[in-house]
RNA sequence: GGGGAUGUAGCUCAGGGGUAGAGCAACUGCCUUUUAAGCAGUGGGUCGGAGGUUCGAUUCCUCCCAUCCUCACCA
């Protein structure tokens, strides 16, 4: 916000007027850039002799960027400009650029964008620099930027002085954060690399990128509270998607055999280090495959993304060594519980499991106590998740945890009917959740394509919703019709892109990997 | 939602019941190979907001706001 009263800003307005008086447009239309800072530095070689030094002076480059530091020494000035590749030092002499340009130079500030022409040389102190023959103001900056200084010690260590550290301002004014803070831009370059890599892995296997609605009249595909909005012309409520799962499955019904989509999902829930109300997932669906196929593709996509960013599969996340090399460990949920607690939950009654949890001080959600499957899932989360550091797939979840997944293939049809009638029997489904560093980084199924069972599971969800559970799946008749038309055997995956990016960029907070994380609006 | 921490100049921070201080940035002057440039000087703050206690509050108290950490919720 420009506060006219601020002395520093007032000063810049005065300078702007003086610059205009000198006949200079502080906001010209274009500039021909011939080189980038990183290339100039990378390609520089020291001249062999005097003659070559002289010859170099006629090799003129044009470069543009934002002034990040300026050192005036009377009739000569050094400054650093930053373009999108690197920063480079400029050397400008009064008797070479002329009286008026030098007067303009005196009025330039950190933050202004300039274009310069000159030749590349190495200074006495060894820094590759551009010796300017002319320069042009390209954009006057009216807002004083934080001044971040870098010091290179004798040992080559880089010390950053007075970094722009206020996290709130960094997130709210990301443009400033990107300009002045070292490493921020790199995180987002890596984010793009990761997404590109995942996309290319999927395309390698013939997946087609598609687009499905963000505004939905029935939300679904996950258990979460949605954002509600309203369409004026139709006078109906609409929901921002919590998932695109049901639409991608409709496309499989429609005859696409492999589809994927990177999407923003919106969930009206709490905000913390790993949750933002809007977040990015990539979901993919593969006809004729099962969850084993999805596991292979998932671990390959993450492994490749890691290689794209780090050149290898080993990373250090906040002090934890992780190896993302495929294949990852696979473990059934009930085996994980047995490994950790020694319990064989299948042979225990629901109430025995609950009693065990109470006796052992294990956090227990009483809202879920009506179902043995949910109690088992609850026990798993409270006891096993904390050990899932290295990448692992946790397989075969209780059916009550999701209405969209197919039961294990080992059950016969009649067996399933029997099991449904007995509340002490738990039906498991072909679902897996990949874990890295204790985080769920995705969710996948052998997709349910039995329309009768699908309808029944939705009805169960609606029933549970009436019973007080807050986040149950709504009925979606059109989706059931699509399943009735016939969806081939299919497997599908959702991957939490933001969490993958956090892991691969060593970021502590999801906000560090979102360019513009949600912030409360500011007063005034 | 509970607990803890923080909020002082454009930035990074110190201070502390008597209306504020440093470094960088800004401004003036000197300086034609400097680099956290240097030297000399100058200006800049309703100390997050609202109340209260007090002769007096930026400092103590209460409430509010924002941010961070943490727990809960969100599988």
Q: On the 0-100 scale, what is the average pLDDT?
A: 91
Share of helical residues = 25-40%
Shape: elongated
First and last CA, distance = 10 Å
Report the structural category: alpha+beta
Estimate what percentage of residues fall within beta strands.
25-35%
CATH level-two architecture of the largest domain: 2-Layer Sandwich
Q: How many helices?
A: 17
* Name of the CATH superfamily of the largest domain: Bira Bifunctional Protein, Domain 2
CATH class division of the largest domain: Alpha Beta
Task: Report the count of strand segments.
Answer: 21
* Structural domain tally: 2
CATH topology of the largest domain: BirA Bifunctional Protein, domain 2
Largest sheet: 9 strands, mixed
Low-pLDDT runs of 5+ residues are none
Radius of gyration: 30 Å
How would you sum up this structure, described in words?
Helices cover about 35% and strands about 25% of the residues. The chain has about 525 residues and is of the alpha+beta class. It has two domains: about 5-145, OB fold (Dihydrolipoamide Acetyltransferase, E2P); about 185-330 and about 390-515, BirA Bifunctional Protein, domain 2, CATH 3.30.930.10. The strands form five sheets. Strands 8, 12, 13, 16, 17, 18, 19, 20 and 21 form a nine-stranded mixed sheet that branches. The protein has a five-stranded mixed barrel with strand order 1-2-3-5-4. It has a three-stranded antiparallel sheet with strand order 9-11-10, with no helix packed on it. The radius of gyration is 30 Å and the shape is elongated.
